[in-house]
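Tutorial handout. Part one gives the primary structure; part two gives the three-dimensional structure as tokens.
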Amino acid sequence: MQTFKQIVDLFDAACTAHLGVNTFYYGTLDKLDATSQNVNYNYVFLRPLSSPGIVTNPNGLTGTRNLAFELYSLDVPKLTETDYLTVMSNTEQVIYDILSYFNNGSNQQTLYTTLSTITPVNEAFNDRVYGWVATVNVINEGILNYCNFPS
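Part two.
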């Protein structure tokens, strides 16, 4: 089972490998605005949400771990209506590409992602950005192992 940090690092790796993403950050909503970060658009931001964690099987040793995140894909359009539509289209595709990185890439044997919702973001924050926020779940097997207990 990957640690929380390893999962965030996978999102970072997906964004770093994606030719359409210039900046990736992780954190709380106050960190989302580009005025608090050194952001170059296209920008992907990952925010953790409340999650059930490991829901154990009746034996109490194994189960399914589910971590929920908001995944923002944002860009600043130019001034024409066509540019807004292009930004909305491109930022939506970035979300699907990142999910594909998890579900079809080298990590597909150990975890996968699901998409719960996708909501448009228009003129949000101080950057006049457009794009999407998706609620995604990272799901993998969870094992409780006393042998790993630090003592």
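Part three, for discussion. The chain has a mean pLDDT of 88. Residues 81-104 form the longest helix (24 residues).
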